[in-house]
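Task: sequence design from structure.
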């Protein structure tokens, strides 16, 4: 018998768990477990998808030029240095595949996004978890963890699931302090929610060891369509282009993304509502004795006394049809990550947690 053996690292991967979306026996579900936009995408997206459907017998264009040009125009970036992927997850995967392998180290923060260690293992590299300081990325700790084997440093800014972020100077200090040959990846999945923040694009322009990833899954409400993008030095884009499948994005995806990004009014309204309701919900939780860090994303990380209390709160919310995210897998067993929903959704979370505190059902 021959043994069919996967590449080193693959069997070390703990499967990614997506946010739960169903509760047995409950029909009025409020899903706040995946940081989705409660308002959905721009209404223009529907027409764009309908238009693109007429051509599904055709292969999509391979260079994504209209999408890259739209992104470039909205963000003031050079379209030639943009690469698009099946979610930003795929762009992160390109980076791991291109720049890390057996013997290399991939740094990520203590409560960083779960895909970073998964992607490191997938290419046979060694993921290195670096401590944070009170749920905030610690640049000194990251720099101290670097070795000559460090190839990639992944940080999400703002970070998921903590919602915290570090300032431009700190990010720049990190980039400047990395060893030769290490690439800093700034994951900007939540960058759109931070007023005036470029996600690190300016730093990408100033340095040759910084790359930024972004997504249409959060602010643009297109998580179900899977579209993301990356912006980096031309030399790195050229490398990633070699491993990108020519037809990774369908025409439907591209047309939807273009329509979503062009509707600046919808995007601005969603950002404003998220900011308003996030502040409101954070205050309500604080009033119930449930603290959370100021969040820069579209979610809050609610802290409880311990794992038992967090799980009891989660069970209570579920009994009322409200699904939030347990984050024990992120080293935060005493916390629940709660997506900021619409006004009614936020009120339902606050009511649910109030009745939990008061011992009511
Ligand atoms: N980075 C972070 C920090 C995220 O939270 C997510 C989504 N959970 C992603 C990347 C991936 O998003 P997508 O693949 O949908 O673009």
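Answer:
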């Amino acid at each position: 018998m021959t043994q069919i053996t996967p590449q080193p690292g693959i069997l070390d991967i703990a499967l990614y768990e997506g946010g739960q979306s169903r509760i047995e026996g409950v029909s009025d579900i409020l899903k706040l477990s995946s940081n989705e936009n409660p308002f959905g995408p721009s209404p223009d997206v529907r027409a764009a998808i309908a238009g693109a459907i007429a051509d599904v017998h055709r292969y999509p264009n391979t260079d994504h030029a209209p999408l890259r040009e739209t992104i470039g125009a909205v963000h003031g970036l050079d379209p030639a240095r943009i690469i698009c992927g099946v979610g930003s997850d795929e762009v992160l995967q390109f980076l791991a595949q291109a720049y890390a392998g057996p013997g290399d180290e991939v740094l990520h923060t203590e409560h960083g996004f779960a895909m970073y260690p998964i992607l490191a293992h997938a290419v046979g590299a060694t993921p290195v978890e670096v401590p944070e300081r009170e749920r905030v990325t610690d640049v000194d700790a990251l720099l101290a963890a670097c070795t000559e084997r460090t190839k990639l440093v992944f940080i999400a800014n703002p970070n998921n699931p903590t919602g915290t972020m570090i300032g431009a100077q700190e990010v720049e200090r990190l980039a400047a302090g990395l060893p030769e040959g290490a690439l800093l990846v700034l994951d900007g999945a939540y960058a759109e929610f931070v007023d005036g923040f470029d996600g690190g694009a300016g730093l990408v322009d100033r340095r040759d060891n910084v790359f930024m990833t972004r997504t249409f899954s959060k602010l643009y409400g297109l998580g179900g369509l899977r579209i993301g993008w990356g912006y980096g030095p031309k030399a790195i884009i050229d490398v990633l282009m070699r491993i990108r499948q020519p037809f990774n994005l369908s025409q439907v995806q591209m047309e939807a993304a273009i329509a979503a990004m062009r509707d600046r009014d919808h995007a601005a309204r969603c950002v404003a509502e998220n900011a308003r309701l996030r502040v409101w919900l954070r205050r309500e939780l604080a009033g119930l004795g449930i603290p959370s860090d100021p969040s820069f994303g579209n979610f809050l990380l609610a802290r409880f006394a311990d794992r038992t209390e967090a799980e009891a709160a989660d069970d209570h919310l579920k009994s009322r049809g409200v699904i939030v995210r347990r984050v024990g897998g992120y080293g935060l067993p005493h916390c629940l990550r709660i997506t900021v929903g619409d006004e009614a959704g936020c009120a339902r979370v606050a009511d649910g947690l109030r009745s939990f505190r008061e011992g009511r059902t």
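The pocket of 4'-deoxy-4'-aminopyridoxal-5'-phosphate is lined by residues 87-89, 113, 156, 160, 187, 189, 215, 217, 223, 228 (CB under 6 Å).
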